[in-house]
UniProtKB/TrEMBL annotation:
This is Aminopeptidase N. Its cofactor is Zn(2+). Keywords: Aminopeptidase, Hydrolase, Metal-binding, Metalloprotease, Protease, Zinc. Pfam families: Peptidase_M1, Peptidase_M1_N. Coiled coil: none annotated. Gene3D superfamilies: Neutral Protease Domain 2, tricorn interacting facor f3 domain. Residues 230-421 form the Peptidase M1 membrane alanine aminopeptidase domain. Residues 14-186 form the Aminopeptidase N-like N-terminal domain. InterPro entries: Aminopeptidase_N-like_N, Aminopeptidase_N-like_N_sf, Peptidase_M1, Peptidase_M1_aminopeptidases, Peptidase_M1_dom, Peptidase_M4/M1_CTD_sf.
Length: 442
């Protein structure tokens, strides 16, 4: 779907992002330093980098030639890089925090998203290249150090742990964060605003840190206080939460899209100012992603059904038990529409680029998991789920690995069952539900 996303020939070991943020919608100076290891001899290599004004590129401290073609930045170092060598790339540029792109699916606008007093970022699916140059592919992961300088009246936040906050000349603050664990570029979060950091504890003393615009602290407090209950509910089904901390970033934007940015889920303010059932659905959805899509990363975008299907599955399962609609009724409705969705949006594991984040990847993919549970039984299904999140924790995995693991755990070959659900043009019969009917395709 995105044939130019990601780059071969090297592995990123760590990103260092330096941002001298100034004011809302105002360009600022930025630098990205990439520590990498070559996986083959390199006379040149590529980075994914879009928009922004490029200033200079160095490799191991020496100026390198750099050429831009669309989203591709081709770097030619002064001296070739040997196979297996460590090297450091530094790119300096002027960042434009108004740059966005648009998709006609659930994502809507992505990239830099201005807020009244700062900015948040929506990097999914491949918008991190609008923020910093890198290896922008969902299966490529690396830890990140963030160093963000802001005016003294602003707070900067990012994935992971706050390492330090220091005053610098000009009545400014430098905020340093460490992501702690590797993450995919589509899961990066970096926000600046007049935030209050609300700290609490989750199950087992897990540090919780909500990042909330000052005017929204009280109005969102009741729903945000539900996070420990959500964590406990998911841990009972999936095992331990896979990261060192968690929290919600309340997005002061008009976008209706929540996002599972790693350890700090972005949840639009409208979600937290509306009804409790809908608020909890969205909160549980993004929290479930910390297991599915974050800890276990996508191997490719065609594997998005694994991530979104699981998040929707547990969102609906939780909601049914907490005042929401019937899970079975929702799945029966999805079943009826499944052939139409296959025609319009592609089968669950065969999305097309324009339809990547359409209905099939959500309820349509949750339906595959529902069918699997009906096929193998509740006990075997729970074993599959726990084996998936524990066995692939901290790695990227996809459809092929899911089918193989499910077969192994269930003790039966499930490829013949799952492949028609995931790839077929027609929806298979639902196990145990002979009365369920698929609507005709129009």
């Amino acid at each position: 779907m995105f044939p130019l996303d990601g780059n071969g020939g090297y592995r990123v070991d760590r990103y260092y992002l330096d941002f001298d943020w100034q004011a809302p919608k105002t360009p600022f100076e930025a630098a990205t330093t990439i520590r990498a290891t070559s996986t083959q001899a390199l006379s040149r290599f590529n980075l994914d980098f879009a928009g922004n004004t490029l200033h200079a590129v160095t490799v191991n401290g020496a100026k390198a030639d750099a050429a831009r073609d669309g989203d591709e930045l081709t770097v030619t170092p002064r001296s070739p890089i040997a196979d297996g060598a460590s090297f450091t790339v530094k790119v300096t540029y002027t960042a434009d925090p108004t740059q966005t792109r648009h998709r006609d699916d659930a994502i809507e606008d992505y990239g830099w998203i201005p807020t009244p007093d700062g900015t948040v970022v929506y990097p999914q699916p491949n918008g991190s290249r609008l923020i910093f140059p890198g290896n922008d592919h969902p299966g490529q992961r690396a830890p990140i150090t963030f160093r963000i300088t802001t005016p003294g009246d602003r707070t900067a936040v990012a994935n992971g742990r706050l390492v330090s906050r220091t005053r610098v000349p000009g009545d400014r603050l430098r905020w340093t964060y460490d992501s702690e664990q590797p993450l995919s570029t589509q899961l990066v979060q970096l926000a600046v605003g007049t935030f209050e950091l609300v700290e609490s504890e989750g199950p087992g003393g897990l540090p919780l840190r909500d990042v909330v615009p000052e005017s929204l602290v009280e109005p969102t407090a009741a729903y945000r206080a539900l996070t420990p209950d959500h964590l406990k509910w998911l841990e009972e089904r999936l095992g331990p939460y896979p990261f060192h901390r968690y929290g919600i970033l309340v997005g002061d934007t008009d976008l209706g899209v929540a996002l599972e940015t790693q350890t700090l889920s972005l949840v639009p303010k409208a979600d937290l100012l509306g009804g409790k059932v809908d608020a909890e659905r969205n909160m549980v959805h993004e929290l479930a992603h910390q297991w599915f899509g974050d800890s276990v990363a996508l191997k490719s975008w065609s594997d998005l059904w694994v991530s979104e299907g699981h998040a929707r599955f547990y969102e609906r399962l939780y909601s049914e038990a907490h005042g929401g609609d019937s899970f079975e009724a929702a799945m029966k409705t999805a079943y009826a529409a499944h052939d139409q969705w296959r025609k319009d949006f592609g089968a669950p594991a065969e999305p097309t680029e324009p339809n990547l984040f359409k209905r099939m990847r959500y309820d349509g993919s949750a339906l595959v998991l529902y069918a699997l549970r009906e096929k193998v039984g509740e006990a075997a299904f729970q074993k599959i789920e726990r084996a998936w999140v524990s066995g692939y924790q901290g790695r990227a995995a996809g459809t092929r690995q899911f089918i193989a693991l499910a077969s192994k755990v269930a003790g039966e070959d499930l490829e013949g069952f799952l492949r028609p659900w995931l790839y077929g043009s027609k929806t298979p019969p639902m196990p145990g539900r002979p009365d369920w009917v698929v609507d005709p395709v129009t």
